[in-house]
Amino acid sequence: MRILVTGAAGFVGGHLMRELFRAHHSVVAVDAVPPPGNGKPFAGDAVCEWHTVDLLDVIAVEKLVQECRPDALVHLAAIASVPQSQAQPDQTYRINVRGTLNLLRLCRRNVPAARLLIVSTAQVYGNRRRTAPLRENTVLEPGSAYAESKAWADFLALLYAERFGLAVMTVRPHNHTGPGQSPTYAVPAFARQVADVVRGRAKLPLIVGNLDSRRDISDVRDIVAAYRLLLENGRPGHAYNVASGRQVSMREIVNLFCRFAGIEPEVRVDPDRWRPTDESPSLDIAALRADTGWTPRIPLEKTLQAMWQAELASDA
What we know:
Elements: E1 2-6, H1 11-22, E2 26-31, E3 42-43, E4 46-47, E5 49-52, H2 58-68, E6 72-75, H3 82-87, H4 89-110, E7 115-119, H5 145-164, E8 167-173, E9 175-177, H6 186-199, E10 206-208, E11 214-219, H7 220-233, E12 239-242, E13 247-249, H8 250-261, E14 267-269, H9 286-292, H10 300-313
Parallel strand pairs: 1-2, 1-6, 2-5, 6-7, 7-8, 8-12, 9-11, 10-14
Antiparallel strand pairs: 3-4, 11-13
């Protein structure tokens, strides 16, 4: 398939393009920023076609869709940071909701047979404690500007499938991490703090928030494998949960990085980073497994080890 990927310059975008190339798909990369690598964006060993386009520019997006004529599209482009969404709610809604609606409308008009995967988030379910794993028909209870914007995008995507017959699916992943993720996110931030101690740039204790909160965290390479399988085999008009099924505390993650570094964990809680203890809701992924055969393959310790090695290499 010829697959258009929005948000290609982001953390997940790079991993997704590699996954698609390995499966012998062709990729059209789209982002609001120019490509990395001096204009030669790589995904694995292949150079992909890159377009610098703002998804809020309807004329430019329609021209792109008409020229590329994709067989499928994965929509990753979004403001994905909860703190940023809280600070810039209007911009978050413009990009996450209006940008998604632009794509849906233009694909309906120009490539109505294309398969579309709109990437949502498990945060649309909220963090209220539940007694059983959540299925995709669970009522959504988003608790942040980011989650609310994603819930609206999710709703619009499934509405276009129902009313207009577009081959649209949505996917609701839990947290995911891996090599290349920005240290503005918790897990790579822990890796960098520990690495700075090893490098002599910082001293213990590590500055942290609430380490008792628990999250379901997948390896990004498992997540993008799920996205590819959904493009190939998912059922239009359906939402799909993606999760590892494992809950891990932030403390366990910090302790693992300290073990890799050969230092004893020592932390100090920063009141500005502290949030009440919570836990990711458990997700039912039976639909994803039934339709694609997907299962998580990379253990969290292996993910963190790869991130640790990449962090050390980045300063080599």
